[in-house]
Amino acid sequence: MDKHFVVGKPVERIDAYDKVTGKAVYVGDMKFDRLLQGKILRSPYAHAIVKSIDTSKAKALPGVRAVLTYDDVPHIPFTPCGHPLPFDSPLDSLIFEKEVRYVGDTVAAVAADTKEIAEKAISLIDVEYEELPFLLKDEDILADGAMEIHKDSKNIIGTTFTEYGDVEAGLRDADIVVEDEYRSPIVTHAQIEPHISIVDIDNHTGKLTFYVSNQVPTIMRERLAYILGLPRRMVRIVKMAVGGGFGGKQEPVYEFINAVLTQACHCPVMLELTREENLACTRTRPSHYFKLRTGVTKDGKITTRDLYTVRNNGAYASHGHSVVLNEYGQFEGLYPCPNTRFDGKTIYSNMLIGAAMRAYGMPQYCIANESHIDHIARTLGMDPLDFRLKNLYKQGDKRNFGNYYADYTCGLPQVLEEGLKRIGYKEFRENPPADNGPIKYGIGMALSTYQACVFPFSCELSGARLMLQDDASATLFINCTEIGQGTDTVMAQIAAETLGVPYEWISVVEGDTDLCPPDMGAYASRQTYVTGQAVKKATLKCKKQFLERAGVMLERPAEELDTRMGMVIDKETGEELIDMPKVAENLVYHLTEGDTCGYEAGFVPTENVLEYMGSFAKVAVDTETGKVEVLKLVTCMDCGNLINPQTAMGQLTGGGIMSLGFGTMEQVLIDPKTGKVLNDTLLDYKIPTFADVPDFEAKFIETYDAAGAYGNKALGEPPNITPAAAIHNAVYDAIGVNIPTNPLTPERVYEAIASAKQGKEA
Amino acid sequence: MQTIHIKINGKDWTGPVEDGETLVDMIRYRLGLTGTKRGCEVGECGACTVLIDGVPNASCMMLAALADGKSITTIEGLTNEDGSLSPIQQAFVDAAAVQCGYCTPGMILSAYALLQHNPHPTREEIKVALSGNMCRCATYEQVMEAVERASDLLAAAVVSKE
């Protein structure tokens, strides 16, 4: 795609210098003359009534500036869910709760001169609790007459039931019906920067400024104003450098607590969570249960698919049922068939809160579904690849679920071809490696689709403003949130490409609701797809006025002119006519016609497209210890044209290794006797380190999709879907057991091998 | 409260520290060098890594008072006076070994220390040396590439000096 001169080039990240020199400013790095420290008093019980709170001793401690409880703050039921208006989750949350619903729920908070004093003050608050029974397991929560965690909810956050064709008849008429159950565990984002915010106040007007580590500034402004009972004009969100989001910072988590402390103390308050709070009291990818039934013909054609799923979301709805709806949208991404049924529900429990996490339901659905696909293939005596080839979506096929996706590009065949070649699938099948003592070898694959935004389900507005300077450089104002994935860089590239100037001529002002136009923010992998179009649209408006000025100077019609790398050129011949800075200077400083040249544009997509990806894994399993070694991992992905191949690769490999963590090591453990999180440190909650990085090849299959600003689709989340499932299927291939859960820890694999052996002997 | 003397990024510093004050808090709040990050406060994540007499250490695990007499290097100390980048920082930029950037200062200091005593590490040696620095963006592939690039840059610099 050489027609582009900035798009598609691995330009240096706009934030790279600041990040390698330590100059990038995260919330915790900000300096204030006086900054109080906040601390939250949390429930030690999974479910209890707060009978009384005595704060007198805490208040008497020198250095304590405020102690706030339920009685001191607004009681406006809200949903923190980081979705655009209108609210799409139950309004089930309060700043402080009188009925606490999980270990870690918010009871009170303190602001003090130092963290040490704040901690001491927390320990001096006397709370009398009345303990209540608590519910953790799906079957107990859904049992007839079960205690309601939220009044009148029946413990249900949301349900979905849709059927196409006739599923019962399809299952009856199928030659074979294969059934599987799968349960994924709770995992958490474990951002290296724990949740943190500072709230400052203008004591004349009462306006609050939130300095946040967050993914959705526009939504934060609306939602925090709502929670605090303030007009939105009284809230400004300033997003600082973000030390990792992954969905766990896609909503107000605790920012409203230092807001009320700031209001009480009339000076800024910081609230920095500890690592333990980050792991046990923020947000999770909660546990999902799947029951899959698939009817096939003897020759391997899928005729009927039936999915029942339950998402156990924890104490509050947060993102609620919409994660299940994302699985719903992708249900027929890969395997369309005539009879399909999706039955999903999201439920409450007395555990920490489920919300968004990178790829929104798809990592867990992918393992469940792709291991089920392998199970069907093995039941039929077919190779899993051949079975997939018989049933995979082909461009132009009809889908019932997800029938709203546009279908301009589909790189799925190339994803498969490239991935199979790189993993050596054919060679492995033709010459399977012999066991090496107790070591068995296996190979597996997993495929997936993912959307490019959430159209047509919720508001998808992005905004951008480009201000041309007097030297033809330009400043781009966006609330499309840079959280490490590289959007500032990519948006600057799109602006530069469109304006016709070098990348270095664009500077970016980002993440400030008083300066930048509304944008729904960083989620759903939407930014390059949606904000990219807004940036292009605003820039084209600037370019139009700029070329009109150039036309006046050159005494030629503007329609005959174009720009490229800082020069005005003849559109037909490419001849360079005049330096762009000269035109910009004339545009601004002309004695009688001087003008500004800055434009804003909003963009709302009216179509959604799909990315296609696949992972391929080769593993060695030690059957005596259960240890899984990933010998090689390959991921291939079609996300359209790449705006920046280097930052894109960071997402593809990084998301892949994060997925490896999901598949093989990560799990939040809950004590069934107390509901407490047992592993709230990074020693006990395992995330991948350098030591876990396998031989990993990642490859983009580039297509040029008509829906994106420059042929792009979307990227951030989907790399996090397929690797865990490919590893799962490779282990299944090695040991012949389809383990119905993750992570594949050594003890779990060992036990699966042992019980399979017992089963055979019995 | 006691007075300590340290060398911080090559410069002498003498000042008071509290008894329970950790080195990371002293570096961030007393010296204002906020490139050193706090991630867990118990030596698990590596975000607060600094060099103490050239050796990478989790600065959250050391009391400031115990740093008395030691030479400490933070990420700010690797950047040249004129703001230009050291070879290892440049290599991180070139390899795009930066995403959210929160682990980056600690990661760079561990990589710098590795190259000081092992100018041409293998991938396995890089993995071992950096395994105490967690990156949730999992930019591990790019960091390994950056360390290899820095190794080449440093070797080229040695050759050109000779």
Largest interface: A-B, 58 and 54 residues
Q: Could you please say which CATH topology of the largest domain in chain A applies here? A: Aldehyde Oxidoreductase, domain 4
User: What is the CATH top level name of the largest domain in chain B?
Assistant: Mainly Alpha
**Strand residue percentage of chain B:** 15-25%
Instruction: Please compute the radius of gyration of chain A using only Cα atoms.
Output: 27 Å
Q: State the separation between the terminal residues of chain A, measured CA to CA.
A: 62 Å
Q: Indicate the structural class of chain A.
A: alpha+beta
- Poorly predicted ranges of chain A: none
Q: How many domains make up the coordinates of chain A?
A: 3
Pairing-aware structural class of the strands and helices of chain B?
alpha+beta
Number of strands of chain A: 28
By oligomeric state, this entry counts as heterodimer
Shape of chain B: globular
Largest sheet of chain A: 7 strands, mixed
How many DSSP E strands of chain B?
5
Give the name of the CATH architecture of the largest domain in chain B: Orthogonal Bundle
Provide the CATH topology of the largest domain in chain B: DNA polymerase, domain 1
CATH class term of the largest domain in chain A: Alpha Beta
Secondary-structure element sequence of chain B?
EEHEEEHHHHH
